[in-house]
Amino acid sequence: MKLGLKIFVAVFLISLASFSWLIYYSTTSAKLQAIPLQAAKGKLLFQKKACIECHTVFGNGGYSGGDLTKVYGNLGKAGLRDYLTQPPILQGAKQKRHDQLTLEDADDLIEYLAFVFSIDTNNWPPQPIYNRNGQAR
To answer: CA separation (Å) from 69 to 1, 21, 40, 44?
Structure first.
């Protein structure tokens, strides 16, 4: 076997082994956390109500309702409960309100949003960069 071919095979095998180890480590890492039962109920409600059609979570979903990835950190439990049980008129609408939830459903959804907030997103979503005039670039 020629030297060039041996080097290619060696590099290929090392790359394959490294990639396999990386996949194994990322899927079995202790960093994965189980979703609590109440948060799982909130996730099912999130799916049932099709919240993803208007809202974004981890960069996926609609953009008309805003990103919910860090909403728990911004509004807190009490603020979210008020919003979900006594929804205000939606921005840009004259009379349309967000769906009103029962207190139990609101608490389940809040637990789901708290779980989403607890996940390390490496500073996602990115914040806009503003110029001297205060305009986003």
So the answer is: 55, 30, 16, 16
